[in-house]
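Reopening this one. Same input as before:
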Amino acid sequence: MNKKERLVAAIENGTVIDHIPAEKTYQVVSVLGLEKLTTPVTIGNYFESKKIGKKGIIKVSDRFFTDAEISQLSVVAPKAVLNIIHDYEVSEKKMVETPNEIRGIVKCNNPVCVTNNEPMETVFNVVDKEHGIIKCRYCDKEQDISKVKLC
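Same output, byte for byte:
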């Protein structure tokens, strides 16, 4: 047999998040709250990728993500691909898509914004999906999504 060995073990059922920019892998873990799961989670990082150079991959056993959770991924990994696995086979592929609104995921970088001075959820409208420009609903400050801090 001349097959290459898999770098990360296959899962029976669950979700594989692939094509994560390597430097964003652990932010994906945080955004999705994967550190709180009690099912197996495999994290691989800095694998070679023809598409993005170096990539991360996360395999989450027995867990399927909602559309809202997938939208949250767009903040840190806008070109990630989710492979839905059933009986060790890919049954569906989902592309991460940026939603029109981002709630409670990122901080406003305007120090005088009410969200930085009161205990409240941040809300951003996505004004330019292609270039990753978001706008705070409270102070109207536009920000580059790749430069924001997570809540």
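So the earlier flakiness isn't reproducible anymore. For the record, The chain has two helices and nine strands.
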